[in-house]
Amino acid sequence: NTVYLNGDYLPLSEAKISVLDRGFLFGDGIYEVIPSYFGRLFHFQEHMERLENSLATIRLANPHTREQWLAILTPLLIGTQDQYIYLQITRGTAPKRDHGFPENTPPTVFAMCSPIVPMAERDSGVKVLTMPDSRWKLCNTKAITLLANILHRQEAIDQNCAEALLVKDSYVTEGAASNVFAVIDGVLMTPPKSSEILPGITRDVILELAQKNGIPCKEESFSLAALQTASEIWITSSTREIIPVVECDEKAVADGKPGPVWHKMNQLFQTYKQ
Ligand code: PDD
């Protein structure tokens, strides 16, 4: 398994960084997860745009152009299987631990590729648990600092759920590592982009497919109370695609089976991937 680290391609077991790396000491870095289908990186430009925004937010210079990134990442792909690139950039290894930015320190750039293994429950649906969103105020930044997300996800796993749906001021924001959609009164809804959610690339594709195919949809916040009336709930991400939720807080969503809008959208998405 070959990975990329600071200009070199090497076996995963030989890829090493310093304990003084600011990613390790402070979680001072950002990342991207870019899926690849049929040997092509999916919505590469959109992932690059989000990467640029994340870097700008943490005031880290982008070490490469989009063309250079494409040239760096493409050799990591293995055949044409469904897979994803994990790309991480940290503020590098400074001579000592100090909160302020180090001077003259090159970033640490790491990338690896993993197969996308479809969730076993993909077609039967998953359970989710709602909980108060304990994250910070920069949720639109794809920061590697994911402790709150991890604690949320694990709390859900501990209750035999696949995802935590996060609630802020009684409104649903997103999942611990996914965006959320709900069909409420016949309209497909997802919260609008803001600093409270990560602008998911999968989310954008779904909105575009809904618009093109006459599925009524709205980018509008919905409350937890509204979510409890939804006929369908989905979670979406680059690694899980579109997953139907059939149980929320131990209550069945509608009849407890993936709904017709999900079936339609999943079909549209599978066709679109090609
Ligand atoms: N996570 N919201 C959060 C908090 C996420 O971490 C993710 C993705 C998404 C969905 O974004 P996209 O559709 O661009 O994957 C929304 C990735 C997969 C991860 O952290 O592994």
UniProtKB/TrEMBL annotation:
Its EC number is 4.1.3.38. The keyword Transferase applies. GO terms for biological process: amino acid biosynthetic process; folic acid biosynthetic process. It is an enzyme of class 4 (lyase). One of its GO terms (cellular component) is cytosol. Keywords: Aminotransferase, Folate biosynthesis, Pyridoxal phosphate, Transferase. The keyword Transport does not apply. Its cofactor is pyridoxal 5'-phosphate. It catalyses: 4-amino-4-deoxychorismate = 4-aminobenzoate + pyruvate + H(+). It holds the Pfam family Aminotran_4. Pathway: Cofactor biosynthesis; tetrahydrofolate biosynthesis; 4-aminobenzoate from chorismate: step 2/2. One of its GO terms (molecular function) is transaminase activity. It comes from the Bacteria. Involved in the biosynthesis of p-aminobenzoate (PABA), a precursor of tetrahydrofolate. Converts 4-amino-4-deoxychorismate into 4-aminobenzoate (PABA) and pyruvate. Belongs to the class-IV pyridoxal-phosphate-dependent aminotransferase family. This is Aminodeoxychorismate lyase. It comes from Crenothrix polyspora.
